[in-house]
Amino acid sequence: MSEWLVLTLAMAAACAVVLTIVVINNRRIPEDDDPSETPDVIEYMTMMIGVIYAIVLGLAIAGVWEARGAAQETVRQEAQAMHEISARVEVYPQQVRDRIRADVDAYVTYVVDEEWAYMAEEGALSEEGTALLDRVRRSVTDYQPANDFEGQAYQPLVDQVAVADDARGARGQSAGATMPGVVWFGLIIGALVTVGLIFTLQIRRTGRELLLAGLFSVLIAFLLFLIWDFDAPFGRGISATAAPFTDLFPQLTG
To answer: Who is most buried in 91, 148, 153, 194, counting CB within 10 A?
Structure first.
């Protein structure tokens, strides 16, 4: 099922539930009830709880967005390191140069074509990708420079392999959900409390009040969906992409 369809159904369900409760609750209110009798303290508490929950939602959205940005940055670092390896081996003999570049190309092709989908499904890195990176490391480290010129290029190449390995590890740590379960518990309970408090204000069945109640519930549902969508930087609709690899290795990724 499409994530946007899930979002639409979630917002429609939240709106329908709130409006249904409003209508049913309104039928139980006697005709002589005066909505102006709502105590001021209830209005104050409703406002304060709404403000506190809005701050919590803002912090949660900022947190998952920052995690997504960090995940995208690790992808850029990994792609740049592999590109540097492929470019700096130019000083090596052709046979060695071609072997290292072939290993780099195999790794990049696998990451873009297969491992990206694997991360989205499993929330972890694949063993095949790790093996391909190890092959790149062996190709770089096993070669013994034949002269000082090649020797000057050797250590920077080894360093770039380490950078790629570190970035890959960070990418693996970001492959799954980043939001702890206890935070989700607080967000959902807070949403129920915040939406539930609007019923203390004696909402009537006027078009204006029903519209505001519906829009408020839809907004809460949308923000929770936004947090959920950002929560897995590599696994959902608005996720980190393999664009750094495709930009630096266009000949492999088309």
So the answer is: 194
Q: Around Cβ 105, how many Cβ atoms within 10 Å?
A: 16
pLDDT digit string (tens) for the chain, length 254 residues: 566 676 677 777 777 776 676 666 666 555 555 555 555 666 777 788 888 888 988 888 888 888 888 888 999 999 999 999 999 888 888 898 899 999 999 999 999 989 888 888 888 889 999 999 999 999 988 888 888 887 888 898 999 999 999 999 988 888 777 788 888 888 888 888 888 777 766 666 566 777 777 788 888 888 888 888 888 787 766 667 888 888 888 887 65
156-195: burial string, b at 16+ Cβ within 10 Å, e else: ebeebbebbbebbebbbebbebbbeeebbeebeebbeebb
User: For residues 67 and 174, is the Cβ–Cβ distance under 8 A?
Assistant: yes
Q: How far is CA 67 from the centre of its chain?
A: 7
Helix (H, G, I), strand (E, B) or coil at 203: coil
One-letter amino acid of 99: R
pTM summary value: 0.75
CA–CA separation, 197 vs 201, rounded Å?
Answer: 8
